[in-house]
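SAMPLE LOG
Freezer: B-3
Tube label: C17
Construct: single chain, 228 aa
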Amino acid sequence: MEATATIAERAEGLLRQMVSATPSPNQSPSECEICNGAGWVVVMGLANPCECQRERAVRHELPPRYHSARLSNFSAAIRERVLRWLADPGDGLLLCGPVGCGKTFLSAAIVRERIEARRKCLFRAVAQLYAELREAFRVNASEAEVLRPYLNSEMIVLDDLGAGALSDFERRAALDVVNARLNSLQPTIVTTNLELEEIAKKLDDRLASRLSTYKPLRLAGVDRRITR
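STRUCTURE (predicted):
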């Protein structure tokens, strides 16, 4: 029994050394007092993910401006509607309203909510999609590789639809992504300053038709950027 216990203790000690010797990317060893930057903690001889892993995942996914975004920043009514939608997301969530009312901040808070629940959710500006596709065309790279995360992610935020030049290229790219995700039953969160009628007129009536199946959530009020 004593020999067995000694072997177990040595094995656990070795496991602790292996975990502590492999710090996670983008985190210095001093950032987490629990795991000392390793991202893992040893419990009863087993390596388990540290709580800080989720915070790192949030910070990796969101722009720095939105690292602090949480559903608790919003009213109880908005939180209730978002949580109800997350329980049954259907085709997607359409966050609309005037400039600066908090659409992007709310979408970032939803990303955090998902990641903290150990689910995946990407955050992408629609302008980023356009830029990545243009760069792929410029260097003769694969368009499919650019679109892969947009089409295959479990859930994704497409932020600021309708911004930009609204060229034929941009309208087609937005329609293709929304349509593909709709057909594959993958929920999408879209933020926009435009009403559906404006999307139909300025972008594409087919895109507006598909977005009409999303759960709408309108935000209004004083410009959040000013109040903050």
